[in-house]
């Protein structure tokens, strides 16, 4: 009898708890739902009580306990339930609630931070996450998934990881990193994610494009056939660059690599001020790992020369996280590709890819990827090749646009045989090698003619310029060779002295101050004068002075400049140039 009573009391207590929990849940919903659920629970509890009776007990004790249990349950829920709706109605409501719930949906789309440190988070979960997908932490910080492993995901964080803790929730965004593109980007300074950082308000871009896209295939491409004028005499004469080419600018620190790039941007003003869209060249400058003050100075120079209106600057400075420095060149390339794919012409400058490789090495080592030569990961070659292969000259079927790339690489102590320099040299279509020794001698731009080469640009050079500058590189090579021997003795024959004298004047003619790009029609007569010995009588220390005065004289000869700009060589044109130069030399020496 005691055992039966205990069973009945336990069952009654359990039923009372069930009804109390149900009543608390129902108190937050509508009153009608409270009545229906409570009355249903009463009926269910009456059914549950029946099997717990011990039939070995006397009948009057059994009936008394059953009556007591029913009265206890009824009194416990009387205040919460008064109505008694149909069981089918309650059943349909429960089915609707159950069908609307998804137990496994959030498990696949969210994860938990296992470890965090050095800008890398290990996240458990995120089963369906994509490579290079953006994820968001509970603190609002974003990151990019780089390592997709069996039991966790390696996330590289954009920014500081101070606000992220172990156990924090991470959710997918479903987006691969993309940036805004289009003409509204012109004149703006943005970060690696395309957010404006110039204080000029938001960018209203109608289109966005993924940062890491596949390079165009073979069929949509066309061979380089249009010149891309840099306005720098030694480059346009001996290392010509075509639209759609990839020309490397390589050299030690403080040798003028960025100066070459900026002069190239400034030189495009003469075409961007015109109305011919086919001649315009829009510029994208990607600053990777530079000081903020350097980027600010660059913006100031471009604004002072009215070049910012056709330029976009993508900046990932030295103070920003390694993933942003890794991503900035890809974001800038996506912005430039919009112009290429819309039948326009664009130039992109990566300044510089050495720092991008260092940022990628840092991320890879922190993600526990195996290191290779110079501790760089094994796919660092692919990092640069997939970026630079996106520069191309498209055929007319695909709009005829082009994207020209000028990557910059910094060498250490003039060592061009290091890992990253050799990689990028093998990827690009030529290189402009800047030498610190020439720079300190005052030969600026400090271009080493012997090591600089353009593999495809000569096809884009005008016939007139090619005929004028054809022997320039050979003359300079002979001069350098003889100058080395001339140091050991003074007894030289007449032809050797003539070669040395002409070489000195050629070197002087190729000097050019910074931020003073020259048009092709101005360069050609100057190079013609040096190669043909028309300025041999002028003292070497006065060559620069003569050049400045000759440029002023040349700017008044509109008919001659117009004929030179056509780019067609003929004897009459050469005769006119020779007469003009000879007369000016006589007047200068008089």
TrEMBL record:
Q: Where in the cell is it found?
A: Mitochondrion inner membrane
The ATPase F1/V1/A1 complex alpha/beta subunit nucleotide-binding domain covers 231-454
Positions of the ATP synthase alpha subunit C-terminal domain: 461-583
Kindly state one GO CC term assigned in the UniProt record. proton-transporting ATP synthase complex
* Top-rank lineage group of the source organism: Eukaryota
One GO MF annotation is: proton-transporting ATP synthase activity, rotational mechanism
Q: Could you tell me which residue ranges the ATPase F1/V1/A1 complex alpha/beta subunit N-terminal domain spans?
A: 107-174
Q: Which UniProt keywords apply?
A: ATP synthesis, ATP-binding, CF(1), Hydrogen ion transport, Ion transport, Membrane, Nucleotide-binding, Transport
InterPro entries linked to this entry? ATP_synth_asu-like_sf, ATP_synth_asu_C, ATP_synth_asu_C_sf, ATP_synth_F1_a_nt-bd_dom, ATP_synth_F1_asu, ATPase_a/bsu_AS, ATPase_F1/V1/A1_a/bsu_N, ATPase_F1/V1/A1_a/bsu_N_sf
The function of this protein is:
Produces ATP from ADP in the presence of a proton gradient across the membrane.
The entry's family comment says: Belongs to the ATPase alpha/beta chains family.
Q: Which PANTHER family match?
A: ATP SYNTHASE SUBUNIT ALPHA, MITOCHONDRIAL (PTHR48082:SF2)
Q: NCBIfam families recorded for this chain?
A: atpA, PRK13343.1
Q: This protein is called what? A: ATP synthase subunit alpha
Please name the source species: Pseudozyma hubeiensis (strain SY62)
């Amino acid at each position: 009898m005691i055992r039966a009573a205990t069973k009945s009391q336990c069952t009654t207590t359990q039923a009372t708890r069930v009804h109390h929990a149900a009543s608390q849940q129902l108190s937050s919903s509508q009153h009608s739902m409270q009545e229906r659920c409570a009355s249903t629970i009463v009926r269910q509890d009456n059914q549950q009580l029946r099997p717990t009776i011990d039939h070995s007990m006397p009948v009057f004790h059994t009936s008394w306990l059953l009556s007591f249990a029913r009265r206890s349950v009824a009194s416990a829920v009387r205040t919460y339930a008064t109505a008694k709706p149909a069981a089918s109605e309650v059943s349909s409501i429960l089915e609707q609630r159950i069908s609307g719930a998804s137990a496994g949906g959030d498990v696949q789309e969210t994860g938990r931070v296992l470890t965090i440190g050095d800008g890398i988070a290990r996240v458990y979960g995120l089963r369906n996450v994509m490579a290079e997908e953006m994820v968001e932490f509970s603190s609002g910080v974003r990151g990019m998934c780089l390592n997709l492993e069996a039991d966790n995901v390696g996330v590289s964080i954009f920014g500081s990881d101070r606000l992220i803790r172990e156990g924090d929730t991470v959710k997918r965004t479903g987006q691969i990193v993309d940036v805004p593109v289009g003409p509204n980007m012109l004149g703006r300074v943005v970060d690696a994610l395309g957010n404006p950082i110039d204080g000029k308000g938001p960018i209203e871009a109608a289109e966005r494009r993924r940062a890491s896209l596949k390079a165009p295939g073979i069929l949509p491409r066309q061979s380089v056939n249009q010149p891309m004028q840099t306005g720098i005499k030694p480059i346009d004469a001996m290392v010509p660059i075509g639209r759609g080419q990839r020309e490397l600018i390589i050299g030690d620190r403080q040798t003028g690599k960025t100066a070459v790039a900026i002069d190239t941007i400034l030189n495009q003003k003469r075409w961007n001020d015109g109305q011919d869209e086919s001649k315009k060249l829009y510029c994208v400058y990607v600053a990777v790992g530079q000081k903020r003050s350097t980027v600010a100075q660059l913006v100031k120079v471009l604004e002072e020369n009215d070049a910012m209106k056709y330029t976009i600057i993508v900046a990932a400075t030295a103070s920003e996280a390694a993933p942003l420095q890794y991503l900035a060149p890809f974001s800038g390339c996506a912005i430039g590709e919009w112009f290429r794919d819309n039948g326009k012409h664009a130039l992109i400058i990566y300044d510089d890819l050495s720092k991008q490789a260092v940022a990628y090495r840092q991320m890879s080592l922190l993600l526990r990827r195996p290191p290779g030569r110079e501790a760089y990961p094994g796919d660092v070659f692919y990092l640069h090749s997939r970026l630079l292969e996106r520069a191309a000259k498209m055929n007319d079927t695909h709009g005829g646009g082009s994207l020209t790339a000028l990557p910059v690489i910094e060498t250490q102590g003039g060592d061009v045989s290091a890992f990253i320099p050799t990689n990028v040299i093998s990827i690009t279509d030529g290189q402009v090698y800047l030498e610190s020794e020439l720079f300190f001698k005052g030969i600026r731009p400090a271009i080493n003619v012997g090591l600089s080469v353009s593999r495809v640009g000569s096809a884009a050079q005008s016939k007139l310029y090619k005929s004028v500058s054809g022997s320039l590189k050979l003359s300079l090579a002979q001069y350098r060779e003889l100058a080395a021997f001339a140091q050991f003795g003074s007894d030289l024959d007449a032809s050797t002295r003539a070669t040395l004298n002409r070489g000195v004047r050629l070197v002087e003619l190729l000097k050019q101050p910074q931020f003073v790009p020259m048009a092709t029609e101005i360069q050609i007569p100057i190079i013609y004068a040096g190669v043909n010995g028309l300025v041999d009588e002028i003292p070497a220390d006065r060559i620069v002075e003569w050049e400045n005065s000759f440029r002023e004289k040349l700017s008044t000869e509109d008919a001659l400049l117009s004929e030179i700009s056509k780019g067609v060589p003929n004897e009459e044109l050469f005769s006119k140039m020779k007469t003009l130069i000879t007369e000016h030399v006589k007047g200068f020496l008089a």
